[in-house]
Design a protein that fits this description.
Elements (H helix, E strand, L loop, with lengths): L5 H7 L10 H11 L7 E8 L11 E5 L10 E4 L2 H9 L4 E3 L1 H8 L7 E4 L4 H4 L3 H5 L18 H10 L1 E5 L5 E8 L4 H17 L10 E8 L5 E3 L1 H5 L5
Parallel strand pairs: 3-4, 3-5
Antiparallel strand pairs: 1-7, 1-8, 2-6, 8-9
Helix pairs in contact: 2-8
Amino acid sequence: MPKHGKKYLQSVAQIDRLKAYPPRQALELVKNSAYAKFDETVELHMRVNVDPRRADQQIRGVVTLPAGTGKPVRIMVFAEGEAARLAEEAGADYVGTDEYIKKIQEGWLEFDVAIATPQVMGKIGRLGRILGARGLMPNPKAGTIVQPEDIPSVIQQLRQGRVEFRVDRTANIHVPIGKVSFTVDQLTENLAAVMEAVTRAKPASVKGQLIRRMTLASTMGPGVRVDVSEAQNLRAG
């Protein structure tokens, strides 16, 4: 069993691990129990009522956090010609195809999200094993394969705080909802937006309540259980 340091144990002492807290109180506890010297990310973890092995019970989508993520986003755009020009004008960090394909094959991965136009996916396909393993492969369900004319708006959304969510092999969803430095109001607004997006993404084949359990935590801090029914009643502003 891993040993925890003194600061972590002091943080845990503030929390009743058996209690499911109302969302705002849970966020206050997460902020108060964060102890790292850097601005920790606040993460939402959800256990959902799906069978990840079934194709008709996959959950995947995107949501724009109203208060942003608090994190700079490095954007790679795979595009050529007019689409590349639009991407550069919209402020993408890296734009191109062949040059960057070669760099990525050699180990370069200095970006946080990749988008591509359908016209270049034939070239990008060879990067599937590298980018797919890191969740960076452009995908229509994630809204990262886009028509050239949509590139500027997608880049703007990413800068404003668009994040992707998806169920993993253990039927859990993990989503960043901001930073410890955010106010409770900002974090609550972001949490509400995620709750609405995940609820809308509920597969038709899933019966009953989708979310079984919720926990909030900072990067280094302990988890705080959240009352699922109260969280589902939140409404994004």
